[in-house]
What we know:
By secondary structure, the protein is an alpha/beta fold. Helices cover 29% and strands 23% of the residues.
Amino acid sequence: MPRQQTVLVTAFEPFGGRSSNRSQLVLEHIIRAAASPKGIRPDVRVMTKLLPVSFDRLEKSLDRALACKPDVVVLLGESGPAEQLLLERVAVNRIDAPIPDNDGSQPRGRAVVADGPDAYFSTVRPKAALAAVRKAGTAAELSGDAGTYACNALYYMTLHRLRRPTPRVPPVIFVHVPVRARALSLRDATKGVLALLRHLLDETAPKTRRSGPQVGTGSLQASRKA
């Protein structure tokens, strides 16, 4: 009998004085979908985690989330400028917080991981993942700039954590959800993320996991994404 797969989906709490975070709302919809009779897939265990927008507390929260030893990891955050789902291809080793986090900290010019590589690339096949989301009817595009705030820090930290003690890591990707409902409805955003999850699970189940994150060294222009 095949081993049960585990998928981890994370989102962020509200920040910047807002009362909600669109990624959290999508996560709540995914939790309901996982609890339905059909679920995401009958042989899959879905683990979810709401993470703090705090550079000091994020690391420990991530470690607790990764304790489930996931086969697939999808990280969610929100983006003000986004007009559709953004599938992020790159995480950079830099924090330049445009606003304070929820603990009042605003680090600038700091590395996510001291002495870490300049960047990690997603361990999924970006074009195939994008095609799966679009096939579900959700507007989406690839992005090479996850910003320099908590979203990028989480992305980089996750790829760095899963690279140890072995370079073989599960599919990991960060997805930015538009803040504005006029850009993309909550229903369509959720539908797109669920399609992405099913695609990554299908890709992972019959095959050996993909190799570890590639390391990049180029400089990337940051944008204001959470």
